[in-house]
Amino acid sequence: MQWATLCRSHLAEAKWFYSGYIPTVGEYLENACVSVGGPAAMFHAYILLGCTLTKNSIDCFKNGSEIIYWSSLITRLSDDLGTSEAESKRGDVAKSIHCYMVREGITEVQAKQCIKELINYSWKKLNKESAKNSLPRSMVNMSLNMARTAQCIYQHGDGIGTSTGAIKDHLTSLIVKAIPIEETCNRSGKLMFKDSLTSVIVYHIGIGLQIMNNFTALAKFNSIIRQGITNMLTSIFVNKIY
Fold first, then answer.
1. How far is CA 128 from CA 140, 144, 147, in A?
2. I need a labelling partner for 120 at 20 to 30 A (CA). Which of 92, 189, 211, 229 fits?
3. Beta-carbon neighbour count of residue 80 at 10 Å?
């Protein structure tokens, strides 16, 4: 079902492209929320995560749940903001920005501002839907994470189609490069960190490493795992704060 719907949405975009048709904003958004692949991706992720298929969860996918719609819309619009310029140069179907410009008679700057406002509105609707207790929590988390990931990837341009730029630097600092932490000693000679939040982070890292030491099966890999966790957590918490 999800694959059939996805293929139909791509077929619609192909017809628009080859006929030179510029859809209205409404037409584009209705189709783009499907063609971006959000509903199909979340359906497969829901199953692969081992979540229980209930009547409620199946109905959400079957009937096009609001939470999936708004998450997919944020994903599509974020994608358009980051990639529309490059895609239009190499030849592709008109994106939301182009649709706004042609149909509303506005400039590119104004069209991008309209997209940003629509993203903000979509986040309000997504947050409202995520607060409903009737939805499976796993579905809520997937919807929120997909929208967050899309905005992170496309906030500085095409974070997937290119291997350079801010996203590459961000991932390198997050995964590869260690973050140096300034440290001092108090009068008793005890190691102290200059920031209380940093002290809390390092304390919890230490607790985690102590727990790891209790697993003898990981003894050979302990040093690698310890360093990897330390680099990852300090990158996530410290690098993003400063």
1. 11, 11, 14
2. 92
3. 25
